[in-house]
Amino acid sequence: MKPVRRRSTTRPLIIPLLGVVVAALAPVPASAAPAADAPGSGLGRHDRQLLAEARANGDPTVTMLIAAKPGSSDAVARGLQGLGGRIGYHDQALGYLRAEVPTARAEKAAAVSGVQAADLDEVVPLDDPRPDGATVPTPFPPPDSSTPRDNPYMPVGRPGPPRSPPPTPPGTAAA
């Protein structure tokens, strides 16, 4: 008798199921409105906290690190100077500026036309990279007149291959 071949009833369900899975995993397009911390939208949350600390401490100026959009670093520099800022470093090829800006105008400085990103400079504390308990090693004393001519640190007493201990004669115990 010839075996009967059955059609799979699950095959027609697999393709629609895969389509649903792919659609569920597909990325959803972001809205056109810029986020608060998006590049070029002013200071981020951490920088606003640093600015609030500078205001509370009464600091007259803050140092800002600014990335300008390509080709607009000169215009950004003029805009910062117009706000009372002093340019400390300007690299036109990179579009990078470091400027001292009055604390009261830092948020306006971050929003100058042509600014791609702006951050307040800060000192980032780093942990001591030495392992716990590490001490400075005691230096090995240099050779002097009492150092024997033939020693393992300066093998100048005899040229040739290193010496090994003499073989133990058969029937004797090794020391």
Automatic annotation (TrEMBL):
Secretion signal span: 1-32
Composition bias type Pro residues, residue spans: 158-175
Domain of life where this protein originates: Bacteria
Positions of the UniProt region annotated as Disordered: 120-175
UniProt keyword terms in alphabetical order: Signal
Name of the protein in question: Peptidase inhibitor I9
